[in-house]
Amino acid sequence: MKRKLDQDNIPAEVPAAKTTADSGNPAAEEATFDRLGLDSRILQALVKEKFPKPTLVQAKAIPLALEGKDILARAKTGSGKTAAYLLPILQSILKKKSTVSSVKGTSALILVPTRELADQVSKAVTAFSAYCAKDVRSVNLTQKVSDAVQQSLLADSPDIVIATPARASLNLNNSALSLEQLAHLVIDEADLVLSYGYDADLKNISKSIPKGVQTFLMSATLTTEVDDLKGLFCRSPVTLKLEEGESEGDGVSQYVVKCGEDEKFLLAYVIFKLKLIKGKCIIFVGDVDRCYRLKLYLEQFGMKSCILNSELPVNSRIHVVEEFNKNVYDVIIASDEHEVVGEEDDEESTSKKIGSDEQGNAAEGEGHDNETQPAKKKRKAPKRDKEYGVSRGIDFKNVACVLNFDLPTSSKSYTHRIGRTARAGQTGMALSFVVPKELYRKHKPTSIPSTEHDETVLAKIIKHQAKRGKEVKPYHFDMKQVDAFRYRMNDALRAVTGLAIREARTRELRQELLKSEKLRRHFEENPGDLYHLRHDHELRSARIQPHLRHVPEYLIPKEGRKALAGSDGDHLGFVSMRKETDNRIRKARMQNKYRNKGKRGSGGGRKSDPLKSFNAKGKK
């Protein structure tokens, strides 16, 4: 039976206030977007984007936001926080423009810690305002354009400005950005903003924020940094601590393998070459060098992967993530330099150190590479993007496994990393390699300083996960079976020299710069050409050994792949590397092409063997 609707299209017997009930109330599951009082054009866009119903954070935050209240929301990664603040902001802008025709000025400022997240938010704004694009204009200040171009974009007074705090502060200082008409301020991933060194920029921005501005602080965790921002920008915010149930899936299954530094590479070879992992995978490593060492190592065995690090141009990084989400790539090797900052107990002091080092909007990144360089050296450290982040913010879709090739240095970083998988009710697996104290520096060519404290960090991770009701289980590979592959690992590692890694970094950077800068206009006019560009091509800086690409049958145990993974083999499965399909098709084509080669009288191929018919004296 149809229920009577009031003038706001809300069922008369279901008050709108019901959606703001206690955060633990399962009634949120019954909420729908049309009951939240959103504009019909926004609802139409939500249908187009296949948003069936609001998530828990959206069902709780949107009604409060429409009432004009400040919101401090903690919800896990992938819970829909972006839509939770964008939809009420769009609703407010459309409502204002329907009553006042000549409204000009920036209504919303959205601050994010990384360029990748800024691009993601910008695309969400475009998607949600698809049917009201003439009324809502947005600008992403993190795009790599000149200051003059940015000033011209801001001169048109866009309704929504998306920026990192550094970019927003810079444009406020040169008077390009005006916040006189500001009605909404959003700080997304609020707990990361200060730890990325934006404290000075945020204080500068706070001086230009008018009184009475509605503030959204969205975060996956509530930390002391979030409390600082709360005191700086909010006025009596409503705090939402939302923990969505995992009834739709079992969440993340967490496993730990204790092994030596060289055994990390051995297990990576076994896992990916023998296809023991199911689905797409993100491999986290400690620094940029490790990215290329692991990529070159996997290339020895004919396995493709792409790289994501702070040295690559921002356009290339965004394109890599997009192609990964479209299932073009299955394996990403990501360096998480911003997370490699030392012991968890020293996180607060480390964050302050990062902030002081990176003031002045410098674009150079931090990491232990820079810290270990002597001050006397004249050679400049590699230029890295401080507005880069991969373990948080970026929306990786359908990630089945997160492999912590190098364990992070804190339980907080670990939580952020494994949050890339098991999103939106799906299941996922997190597998971490841990180097015991007695095995540290036993294999110097592959050792890095952060592994010295792996066991200490692991204890903190286990304790932290136990508080959340999660268990980190040991995963036992049958090393007797795995050892049969050790000599192949040694062959491959010997080919990946330090010189090969440096050449690979230079070659990759040169290729990506060529794609993103010199051909940018061509790609804008011909987007199809950019789509076909691959980021998982072979670098070929290391000595290639063709015999390593094939796995001899005598190396595989009689019991099959499950024997390698011990009793826990059921938790592992198939990962499509896509190259297998290509090889099968290519092999069939080659067979058809040369099927009749060498037969006399056949239509295709040669009629005789050129080596046998060769005459050095020439034809008589």
Question: What is the secondary structure topology, with strand pairs?
Answer:
Layout: H1 40-48, H2 56-66, E1 71-74, H3 81-99, E2 108-111, H4 115-128, E3 138-140, H5 147-155, E4 160-163, H6 165-173, E5 184-188, H7 190-193, H8 199-206, E6 214-219, H9 224-233, E7 238-241, E8 252-258, H10 261-273, E9 280-285, H11 288-299, E10 306-308, H12 314-325, E11 331-335, H13 347-357, H14 368-371, E12 399-404, H15 411-418, E13 428-434, H16 454-467, E14 472-474, H17 479-482, H18 486-495, H19 498-518, H20 520-525, H21 527-531, H22 579-593, H23 610-613
Parallel strand pairs: 1-6, 1-7, 2-4, 2-5, 3-4, 5-6, 8-13, 8-14, 9-11, 9-12, 10-11, 12-13
Helix pairs in contact: 2-3, 3-4, 6-8, 11-19, 15-16
Across the major sheet, the strand order is 3-4-2-5-6-1-7
According to CATH, what is the class of the largest domain? Alpha Beta
The fraction of residues in strands falls at 5-15%
CATH architecture term of the largest domain: 3-Layer(aba) Sandwich
Overall spatial form: globular
Q: What portion of residues is helical?
A: 25-40%
Residue stretches low in confidence (pLDDT < 50, at least 5 long) are 1-29, 245-250, 340-379, 567-571, 573-582, 600-604
Q: What structural class do helix, strand and pairing data support?
A: alpha/beta
Subcellular location: Nucleus
Main location: nucleus
Family: Belongs to the DEAD box helicase family. DDX56/DBP9 subfamily.
Domain Helicase ATP-binding: 62-240
